């Protein structure tokens, strides 16, 4: 293995700084904050779903401001156009040529606020950039600067004025998390610290885009044994054959699960992935991609509960470095 202990020590110090900085704004949500950091280091994208007012946008902005890189915010609305997201070619009468004006996705961290309030056509404008980290407009392809991460918030689909995300869009988000309501002490802290000033105003970067790129390179060196790889495939295969699911996990889901597990191992100071990493991450990485059967829906079984049953049925191997 080419990953050194020094790389992992540096990575852990940086992630500790990131976590502490974000938690100056978001109190009592360490697990959600850790998932956001893991997704960043795994070169994925994060979907945050919950009811209005629980801190979804605050979390995404806090993560973006903690990194000294470029940040763009896109407010998704019903009248938002795909060109607002990707960019558009404008004819310049002075030069007699078309000039490309970049859209909101041209940044290291893109905050997509209330993504499911835009039409499916506009949501689909994100498909290429999220998967291939590039944008094609008028047959010209423009690469996106690395690191590149979309942090999108959405309200529950049953709320008024929302559209369900297309399956292809959901599958491009590495993880989906829910903020949940704060505990009483955390909500009191919000009242004490957020009523006189916006805590985001005092939030300064604690790392740089260059340092994040080095951390991503270190995560990529984390070892995944053949046994752990087979276990990841076994979990995905079990979702595809489950009678409770109309749509199982895609190969992209398997890849995202392993990449997130590598980042989790690195943050924990390990240079190898354990099967337990996959078990712990599966609800956040896999569940949002699944579609329950009609019978499961009528029985009030959601995809998280179905996935938990599947995980219990697939034998966990004894493997790490082996």
Short description:
The protein has 14 helices and 13 strands. With 322 residues, the chain is of the alpha/beta class. The chain has two domains: 17-193 and 206-221, P-loop containing nucleotide triphosphate hydrolases (Rossmann fold, 3-Layer(aba) Sandwich), CATH 3.40.50; 222-314, Magnesium chelatase subunit I, C-Terminal domain (Helicase, Ruva Protein, domain 3), CATH 1.10.8.80.
Largest sheet, strands/sense/barrel: 5 strands, parallel
- Supply the number of structural domains: 2
Q: Radius of gyration in whole Å, from Cα?
A: 20 Å
Query: What is the terminal-to-terminal distance?
Result: 13 Å
Which structural class should the secondary elements be placed in?
alpha/beta
Average pLDDT confidence is: 88
β-strand number:
13
Strand content: 15-25%
Q: CATH superfamily name of the largest domain?
A: P-loop containing nucleotide triphosphate hydrolases
Unreliable residue runs: none
CATH class of the largest domain: Alpha Beta
CATH overall fold name of the largest domain: Rossmann fold
Coarse morphology: globular
The total of helices stands at 14
Report the order of strands and helices: HHEHEEHEEEHHEEEHEHEHHEHHEHH
Strand order within the widest sheet?
Answer: 3-6-9-1-10
């Amino acid at each position: 293995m080419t990953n050194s202990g020094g790389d992992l020590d540096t990575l852990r110090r940086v992630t500790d700084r990131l976590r502490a900085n974000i938690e100056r704004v978001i109190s009592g949500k360490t697990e959600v904050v850790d998932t956001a950091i893991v997704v960043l280091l795994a070169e994925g994208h994060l979907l945050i779903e919950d009811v209005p007012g629980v801190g979804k946008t605050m979390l995404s902005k806090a993560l973006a401001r903690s990194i000294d890189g470029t940040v763009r915010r896109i407010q998704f609305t019903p009248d938002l156009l795909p060109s607002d997201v990707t960019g558009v070619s404008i004819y310049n009468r002075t030069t007699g040529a078309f000039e490309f004006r970049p859209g909101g996705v041209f940044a290291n961290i893109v905050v997509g606020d209330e993504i499911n309030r835009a039409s499916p056509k506009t949501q689909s404008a994100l498909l290429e950039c999220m998967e291939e980290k590039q944008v094609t407009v008028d047959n010209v392809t423009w690469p996106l600067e690395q690191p590149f991460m979309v942090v999108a918030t959405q309200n529950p689909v049953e709320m008024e004025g929302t559209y369900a995300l297309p399956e292809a869009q959901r599958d491009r988000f590495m993880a989906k998390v829910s903020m949940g309501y704060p505990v009483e002490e955390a909500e009191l802290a919000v009242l004490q610290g957020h009523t006189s000033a916006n805590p985001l105003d005092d939030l300064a970067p604690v790392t740089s885009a260059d340092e994040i790129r080095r951390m991503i390179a270190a995560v990529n060196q984390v070892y995944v044994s053949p046994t752990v790889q087979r276990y990841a495939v076994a979990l995905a295969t079990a979702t595809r054959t489950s009678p409770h699911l109309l749509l199982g996990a895609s190969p992209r889901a398997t890849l995202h699960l392993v990449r997130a597990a590598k980042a989790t191992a690195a943050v924990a100071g390990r240079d190898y992935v354990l099967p337990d990493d996959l078990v712990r991450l599966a609800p956040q990485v896999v569940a949002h991609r699944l579609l329950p059967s009609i019978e499961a829906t009528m029985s009030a079984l959601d995809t998280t509960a179905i996935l938990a049953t599947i995980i219990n049925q697939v034998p966990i191997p004894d493997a790490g470095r082996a």
